[in-house]
Write a structure and sequence with these properties.
Keywords: Hydrolase, Protease, Signal. It comes from Hyphomicrobium album. InterPro entries: Peptidase_S1_PA (IPR009003). By secondary structure, the protein is of the alpha+beta class. It has a single domain, classed as Thrombin, subunit H (Beta Barrel), CATH 2.40.10.120. 25% of the residues lie in helices and 28% in strands. The protein has 5 helices and 14 strands. Strands 1-2-5-4-3-14 form a 6-stranded antiparallel β-barrel. Strands 7-8-9-12-11-10 form a 6-stranded antiparallel beta sheet. A two-stranded parallel sheet has the order 6-13. The longest helix is centred in the first third of the chain and has 27 residues. It starts with a helix and ends with a strand.
Length: 257
């Protein structure tokens, strides 16, 4: 073997080695087009932002919500409800059908569970009070929370409560009634659709106390509300009482803070 041939062979080996280095470098630097499921999940985990595992030190305080019923007593936006349903509210919201408006307190009764509140305008109809006729013992009447009225209207209920003859609560109308939460402030309607009282509280499972007619009218008059009085029926004999109640009532939400 001559020196020239040896140099030529050595040069060939060096060129081959250089080509291998270039190919390996290109393969190393080229992006991969396929990954194993494990590699994909690992990359996904790296890219996902971290989530805190601890609750805030001072979580926001959620205000207490009280829900009741109110009803319109004139065409200017005045409403009656139970005092305990609104007296400690930071904000009062009236909801009726698609309407949602804020109300303000006008007056609170010192003796009875009554509150006079006001919105910008009357939504629907205003209640009518009897001029002289008052509910008598064993008379059938109607009362319920505003939210329960659509269901009762569809079922055609004419009355769901009975006036009790018990006179142990002066200034109040005692009724045997199934009404539950949300009925505070609801009107008690007789068969003519006239307001005979305002729901206050439950005294036992099937007995409810309502502020009486005379006391309710006196409270409105003392606060300058010009409410309508009439002994004539405001509904036809077969009109569901829930329909009349829904036309004059609304849902009350009290936010305490």
């Amino acid at each position: 073997m001559t020196i020239r041939s040896t140099r030529a062979r050595f040069s060939g080996h060096m060129m081959a080695a250089a080509c291998c280095v270039v190919v390996i470098a290109q393969l190393w630097s080229a992006p991969t087009t396929a990954q194993s499921p494990f590699q994909q999940s690992q990359r996904g985990l790296v890219m996902e932002p971290s989530k805190p595992l601890a609750l805030p030190q001072d979580p926001p305080i959620v205000g207490r919500l009280l829900k009741g019923t109110a009803f319109f007593v004139d065409q200017s936006g005045y409403m009656l409800t139970a005092r305990h349903a609104v007296e400690h509210c930071a904000r009062i919201v009236i909801a009726k059908e698609q309407h949602r408006v804020q109300a303000r307190i006008i007056a609170l009764s010192a003796k009875y569970d009554l509150a006079l509140i006001k919105v910008s305008k009357t939504l629907g109809l205003a209640a009518v009070f009897p001029r002289t006729a008052t509910a008598s013992a064993n008379e059938m009447v109607f009362a319920n929370a505003y939210d329960a009225l659509p269901r009762m209207r569809d079922s055609g209920v004419l009355a769901n409560s009975r006036v009790d003859h018990d006179g142990s609560e002066p200034g109040h109308l005692i009724i045997d009634s199934p009404v539950t939460h949300g009925a505070s402030g609801a009107p008690v309607l007789d068969k003519r659709g006239l307001v005979q009282g305002v729901i206050s509280r439950r005294t036992r499972l099937d007995r409810v106390l309502a502020v009486g007619l005379a006391e309710t009218k006196a409270f409105l008059a003392a606060n300058g509300v010009h409410f309508e009085q009439d002994d004539r029926p405001q509904v036809s004999p077969f009109t569901p009482s829930a329909e009349r109640a829904a036309s004059i009532s609304a849902h009350v939400t009290c936010l305490t803070n």
